[in-house]
Amino acid sequence: MLDINSILPAKAMGIGRQSDKPGHLLLPLAPNINDKGTAFAGSIFSLAVLSGYETALDRLGQLSLSGNLFLLSSNITYHQPGLSDLIAQGRILDNLKPTRKSNWKMRIEVEVMEAQSQSLCATFEGLYVLQVDTEQENQHKPEMI
């Protein structure tokens, strides 16, 4: 699993684990509050990106793939203000698919919920791309389960 504390902005925001499941992260409200007394939208976005990233990393680990994973594009919809700590949970929408440049991509959805009320605050969708290590590029294509 990703060492959240190795990402300095995530450490400063206080992002931590909500459970031992990959992509299940927690954002405390206190260090991420805006001038309205609600969760800062940028903090919510960062939480969602990290949740999606960890969800993708876990899937790549299951397939023994490595390389540089990055977020290519994303979309977020804010449904309501965050009034308490927030929980993010990622899930794979589209499993790995090959790209034209011999890389792999997958679409991840993350739901960000209020910890107290369990109401939906934001929905994030990200397209994550793996630039495959050159050695792995010629080995084999991963089996999709």
Strand content: 35-45%
Quick one: overall form?
elongated
CATH architecture: Roll
Number of helices: 3
The run of helices and strands is HEEHEEEEH
Helix proportion range: 10-25%
CATH superfamily: Hotdog Thioesterase
Architecture overview:
A hairpin with a 5-residue loop joins β5 (104-114) and β6. The model has no long low-confidence stretch (mean pLDDT 90). This protein has one domain (4-137): Roll (Thiol Ester Dehydrase, Chain A), CATH 3.10.129.10. The longest helix has 22 residues, at 41-62. Helix content is 22%, strand content 38%. The two termini are 20 Å apart. The chain has helices at residues 8-13, 41-62, 134-137; strands at residues 16-17, 24-27, 67-78, 86-98, 104-114, 120-132. 29% of the residues are buried. With 145 residues, it is of the alpha+beta class. A six-stranded antiparallel beta sheet has the order 1-2-4-5-6-3.
